[in-house]
Amino acid sequence: MKKLILLLSAALAAFSATAQTYDDHGCITAPPAGKTTTYIRSGYNRVQVGFDYSSVPQQGTLDLVECEDGSVYMQQPVSTARSKSTAGHWIKGVRSGRMITFKSQPTGFVTGLNVALRASMGSWNGADYSADFDADIVFEETTDGKKLMLLNTDEQHILGTFWADDASYGNDGDWGTVLTIDTSSQHADPACPPDGATGKEYVTMGVSLGNGALEDVAQVIIVGDEVWLSNCCKQAKGLWIKGSVGADGSLTFPKEQYLKSVEGYDYYFYGAAKEGTKTTPCDLVLTCDSEHDKYFAQQDIIVTADKWEAGQLVVETVQNFILFPSGAAPEMITATPEGEVKVYSRSGQSFIRNMGGVFFGDQNDQDIAICFAPDGKTVYMLYPLSSFDYRYDQEKEELMELWVKGTIEADGKIHYPLYQWLDYEEYYSTGMRTAVFRLFEMPEGSTYELAPEYNEVTFAIDKETGVIRLDSFDGVENAGDYPTLIYGAAYSDNFQWAGYGDAASVYTPKEEEERIKGQQTGDGGRQAAYDLSGRVLSPRALSVSSRSVFLQSGRKIIK
Asked: What secondary structure letter does DSSP report for 264?
C-alpha cells in the first residue's frame, strides 16, 4: 500500500511538472515550469493592408520555455498578430537535438467573429495565403546555441495565424525569422539621481519628427563628475539618464540605457548618429556654453521599444540644445528710454500660429519706433513683433508701452539678445519672451512645425539710406515659399512656439513730415491719440490699433 502511494505521488509530481493551462478555446495560456530564454526577433513580417501585402521588419522579443521532458513552449510565435486574442498565447512543440518542431495548433480566438485561429505554415496560392495544417513548423538552433532559425519560409511561404474554419489567411505572418538570445534581458534599474541632489532646470529645444516642437523642461543634476538628465525627450517624460562630466564641462550619456517597461516592451535610450539615411546608435554628447549656461546636443535622441537591433522605433528627436531659462522676475522696459526716437515703416513677412496652423501675412501696414540712446551704443525697439498681441491697458485706454534693448556693435550692426521679456501674466505665472525659431516641414508634407533655434538676432543698418534689415536670416534656404528662420515670441516656461513672429523684416525711415499734431486733449481732458498718419483715434479704434502716437514734453511717443 505504501509503495502504491509513493508511485501515485511520483505520477502526480511528474504530471504537475509538465502541465500547462488552456483557455476555453484550447489555446495555451501558460506553460509549465522550465528553463526560460528570451530571444530578440529579426526577420520579416508579412502584413495585409486592404488587398495589398507588404513585408516589414520584425520587432520585439519572445520567450521560449524548455521542460525536462523535452517539450518546448513558444510565446506568440507570430511577431505582430493584430488580434488581441493571440497576445500572450503559447504553442507547444518538442526538441530533438538542434531541431525544435511544432505542429499546427490553436493560438487564438476572435470573439466577434466566433472564429478560432491556428498557428500554421502557409503558402501563396496566387491570390492569397492559405494554411497547410499538416505541415510542421520547424526551428533549427545554430551550432553555437545562440540563435534559432525558422526553416522553409520566404515571402511566398510564411508562418502565420490562419482562420481555423477554412485555413485562409486570418492575420499576419512571419518569414526569414531569426531569434537571437537576448544576453542583456536582465537590465539594470533605471537611472536615478542621489536623494537630496538638486540641479538646474533647462528647456529642451528642437523638433521631434512626427510629434512637433519640443515643449518640455529638463533638469540637469551634477554631483562631482557624474550627471543625471531628466526628460531628455518626449518619450522619456519623468525619467532619467546618467552620464559623466568632462573637463571642458561637456556631458556624455552612454547609449542603451534602460528607461521603463510597458506592456512587455523594455524602452531604452540611445544617442543616434546619422550618415545620409543610415542611423547608428552612439553616446549622446552635450557640449557646454558656460557663458550663456547652455548645452548643445551633438547627436539625435532615440527611444526604442526593446533593443536597437530589433527594436521598435518610438520617437526620433532632433534636439538642438538645452537652454537654461532664468527664473528671475521679468524686467520689462515699459517707459520710453532717453534718446532719439525714429519712426520706420515695416515690410517683410508676419507669422501667426492659430489652431495648429501657421499663417503667413505681411508687415506692410505696421510701423515701428527705434530709440537711439545718447551713448551711441544702446538702442531700443518698441513693439518688436508686428503681429504680437501686445497688452492693452483698459484703465489708460492705450497699449502698454514695451521696448526690447540691444546694442550697436563695432561691426555696425544692431544686436538684440534673445529671450527678453515681452509680456508677463502673474495669474498664470507665465510670460512671453523673444526667441528665434526654425520652420520645419513635417514628414507628411502637409504641415509646418516651428521649433526654437539658438541664434542671436541682428539687424544691419545701411549708412546711406538708414534702412534697417533683419540680418540674421540672410541666405537661409526656404521651407516652400516661406523663410526658414523666424524672429518670434515664446512662452517663457518651456519656450514652445507662441504664435507670433516676423521674418525678412525691412525697416524704412519715415519722412520727418509725419503730420504729427501738436499736443491736444479730447473730451474729459484725456490726451488725444493719433495714428502715424496723424488721424485722431477713437477709444474703440485705439483698442484695436497696433500703433498710435502721443506727444509728451515735445517728444513723439509711439504707443
From this structure: T
DSSP 8-state class, residue 207:
E
Instruction: Give the position of cell 559623466.
Output: 244
State pTM to two decimals.
Answer: 0.52
Q: What distance in Å separates the CA atoms of residue 473 and residue 482, rounded to the nearest whole number? A: 12
- Three-state secondary-structure class, residue 457: strand
Q: Are 61 and 41 in contact (CB under 8 A)?
A: yes
What is the rounded average pLDDT for all residues in the chain? 77
| CA-to-CA separations, 535 to 187, 368, 406, 530, 547, in angstroms, rounded | 73, 17, 31, 5, 12
Over range 73-81, report the average pLDDT: 85
Contacts of 1 (CB under 8 A, 6+ apart): none
Band of residue 420 on the pLDDT scale cut at 50, 70, 90: confident
* Paired residues of 508 in beta bridges: 345
Q: pLDDT confidence of 363, banded at 50, 70, 90?
A: confident
For 171, the grid coordinates are 492575420
Tell how many helices (H) and how many strands (E) occur in the chain.
2, 47
Confidence (pLDDT) at 443: 53
Q: How many CA atoms lie within 13 A of 467 on its CB side?
A: 11
Pairing of the two strands 392-393 and 398-399: antiparallel
* Beta carbons within 10 angstroms of residue 486's beta carbon: 27
| Cα 211 from chain centre | 5
Whether the per-residue pLDDT at 84 is higher than 90: the answer is no
Contact 117, 107 (CB under 8 A): yes
- Concatenate the DSSP letters of all residues of 153-201 into one string: -BTTEEEEEEETTT-BEEEEEEEEEEEEE-TT-SPPPPB-PPTT---EE
| Amino acid in the structure at residue 42 | S
